[in-house]
Amino acid sequence: QVQLVESGGGLVQAGGSLRLSCAASGRTFNTYLMAWFRQTPGKEREFVAAIDWSGVNTYYADSVKGRFTISIDNAKNTVYLQMNSLKPEDTAVYYCAARTRWGASVVLTRGYDYWGQGTQVTVSS
């Protein structure tokens, strides 16, 4: 079992920055990939970024590439999402996720086995 706890959300103005954190605990040794997704009411949960535990391989949605950076601190079992140049359309609940198996695309929610509770990010215009 893996537990994921997000933090760092809040209210910022457009153009501002936030850094989200996801603390992982439990049996993290068998997780292959960590990711961030986001969701607004009435919409499907969408992929934002992913990273493997080595930190070598990263993946980004086109909508955030160049603005967001995902990283991992292995010693702290924590994944981060640095969000710069925030836009109102970035407003969402952001979720941390982990997968223990391969097969599905990294952008699909069904490929992930564990999820955090989410943290709210609100960007005002």
Question: Could you describe the 3D structure shown?
Answer:
The chain is an all-beta fold. The protein is built from no helices and 11 strands. Strands 2, 4, 5, 6, 9, 10 and 11 form a 7-stranded mixed β-sheet that branches. A 4-stranded antiparallel β-sheet has the order 1-3-8-7, with no helix packed on it. A hairpin with a 5-residue loop joins strand 5 and strand 6. It is globular and about 40 Å long. The N and C termini lie far apart (40 Å).
SSE topology sketch:
Blueprint: E1 2-7, E2 10-13, E3 18-26, E4 33-39, E5 46-52, E6 58-60, E7 68-73, E8 78-83, E9 92-99, E10 114-115, E11 119-124
Parallel strand pairs: 2-11
Antiparallel strand pairs: 1-3, 3-8, 4-5, 4-9, 5-6, 7-8, 9-10, 9-11
Beta-strand content estimate? over 45%
Percent helix: under 10%
Give the integer mean of the pLDDT values: 95
Distance between the termini: 40 Å
> How many E strands?
11
Let me know the largest β-sheet: 7 strands, mixed
**Gyration radius over CA:** 13 Å
Structural class: mainly beta
Note poorly predicted spans.
Answer: none
N to C succession of SSEs: EEEEEEEEEEE
In one word, what is the shape?
Answer: globular
Output the number of helix runs: 0
Short description:
With 125 residues, the protein is mainly beta. 0% of the residues lie in helices and 51% in strands.
